[in-house]
């Protein structure tokens, strides 16, 4: 049975960007190449070289790596277990509704490309600041497709109006490519005059795995530490067995 993520709202202060959390449960086993997950698969087994949700879960960062005061949110911690998701076709990118979804931990779903397996963990602190990490494994060349589509969405949403949370906000997204992190990496910083703080999104591809993080804070650094945390996950994925 195909597992589905469902977005859930996370309580937020009036000054913090509206945040959402992804959910799902279930996963499967597979062996990646020695230098990290393979970018391809064999004709006989489309899941060859893929990491299961159970294995991906073990690559996520524990709460102890985060700044002091964060705690795990069990409702935002999910994985696909040991059973891979059934193969399904990609959906067209829905640019018309994509922008507000970038204020959610499941923002990878704006790509419209289904993964074979995934794992995610969500953490919050007393101020309702949030860090979410997700690692997805893709068949064939889908991981490259995800990165291309995410860049398309981020470019389209460079400036948009957000009415979530009951307050209109003029959101700006500054997107940059980060060299020498994974096979390709995008960093996007979301800010608005109506917000106190901001959100940093990072997407990194390592072979057929895509790592996405979401770091929403009230501080002026806009969640800049999200890139460093993502790099730690990249190192874990590269050495996955």
Explain this structure.
Residues 1-24 form the signal peptide. It comes from Streptomyces piniterrae. Residues 27-47 are annotated as: Disordered. With 241 residues, the protein is an alpha+beta fold. It has a domain at 73-222: PknH-like extracellular domain (Protein Transport Mog1p, Chain A), CATH 3.40.1000.70. 17% of the residues lie in helices and 28% in strands. It has 4 helices and 12 strands; from the N terminus they run βββαββαββαβββββα. The protein has helices spanning 53-57, 95-101, 142-156, 225-238; strands spanning 8-9, 20-21, 27-28, 71-72, 78-82, 117-124, 130-137, 159-162, 169-177, 184-191, 198-206, 209-217. Strands 3, 4, 5, 6, 7, 8, 9, 10, 11 and 12 form a 10-stranded mixed β-sheet that branches. A hairpin with a 6-residue loop joins β9 (169-177) and β10.
H and E order = EEEHEEHEEHEEEEEH
Mean pLDDT: 85
Low-confidence stretches: 1-35, 38-42
Class of one domain in CATH? Answer: Alpha Beta
Write the layout of secondary structure elements.
Elements lengths: L7 E2 L10 E2 L5 E2 L24 H5 L13 E2 L5 E5 L12 H7 L15 E8 L5 E8 L4 H15 L2 E4 L6 E9 L6 E8 L6 E9 L2 E9 L7 H14 L3
Parallel strand pairs: 3-5
Antiparallel strand pairs: 1-2, 4-6, 5-6, 6-7, 7-12, 8-9, 9-10, 10-11, 11-12
Quick rundown:
By secondary structure, this protein is α+β, with helices and mostly antiparallel strands.
């Amino acid at each position: 049975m195909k597992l589905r993520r469902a977005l859930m709202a996370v309580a937020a202060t009036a000054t913090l960007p509206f945040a959402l959390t992804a959910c799902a449960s279930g996963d499967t086993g597979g062996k990646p190449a020695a230098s990290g997950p393979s970018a391809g698969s064999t004709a006989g087994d489309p899941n060859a070289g893929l990491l299961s949700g159970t294995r991906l879960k073990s690559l996520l960062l524990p709460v102890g790596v985060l700044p002091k005061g964060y705690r795990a949110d069990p409702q935002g911690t999910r994985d696909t277990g040991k059973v891979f998701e059934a193969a399904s076709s990609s959906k067209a990118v829905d640019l018309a509704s994509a922008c507000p979804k970038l204020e959610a931990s499941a923002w990878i779903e704006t790509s419209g490309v289904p993964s074979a397996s995934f794992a995610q963990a969500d953490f919050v602190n007393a101020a309702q600041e949030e860090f979410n990490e997700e690692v997805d494994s893709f068949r064939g060349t889908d991981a490259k497709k995800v990165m291309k589509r995410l860049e398309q969405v981020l470019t389209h949403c460079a400036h948009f109006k957000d009415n979530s949370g009951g307050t209109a906000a003029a959101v700006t997204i500054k997107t940059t490519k980060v060299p020498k992190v994974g096979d390709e990496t995008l960093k996007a910083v979301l800010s608005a005059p109506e917000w106190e703080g901001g959100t940093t999104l990072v997407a990194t591809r390592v072979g057929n795995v895509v790592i996405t993080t979401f770091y929403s804070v009230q501080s002026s650094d806009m969640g800049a530490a999200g890139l460093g945390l993502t790099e730690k996950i990249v190192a874990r994925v590269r050495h996955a067995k």
